[in-house]
Amino acid sequence: MALHITLDFLRDLAANNNRKWFNDHRRQYEEARAAFEALIDAVLVGFDQVDDFRTMTAKDVIHRINRDVRFSADKSPYNTAMSAVIGPDGRKSLSRLYYIRLEPGDQTIIASGAISLSSEELQVIREAILQDAAPLRTLIEAETFQQQFGSLMGEQLKTAPRGFPKDHPNVDLLRYKEFMAQRRFIDDEVIGPDFGEQIIVTCQALKPLTMYFYELLGDRTVTTRGQG
Description:
This protein has one domain (3-217): 2-Layer Sandwich (BirA Bifunctional Protein, domain 2).
């Protein structure tokens, strides 16, 4: 997989994010996307080592290069990373999802967790933490988790959420509004011969966290959340 082509194209796109440049370099874009699709297809072939999803191809899980700028102050027309979501409903998945984002400048990440939470879903998670935080804390304090992902990530409140005691022993977990873990890869790792295998290994390490939230919230997709 010639992922150096993908990284080079994305680097150039970031410096020339306009339709004229993109159209003038469409052949390079198609080569860059083909290399990314080849990576994702190879990962999907071996993904039964992580989870048993329906048969999918790269086209089921990869996001479009075009940005939705309708509600954004930034009107740049194109994403400057290539990304995919592997999950039971492909790129529409919000549960049991594994997010892969290829971005130059050592910004490539593999991530998972609970994102785009409604207030009701967030309340379910907080109630579970309130009743027994040990399962989640055991996951994020495990040696494997700490080595690969460091700490839990995600937007947080500055203090305890409304209705929860500020001095609760698990207030650090209750403050989260989303719960994510991610591993970052430098460009040299991305273009290395075993990057596809590293994606599988990383997703295996993410699975316990992914399944913790799946068991609380069940199946979730962008369509069930009214996001198109």
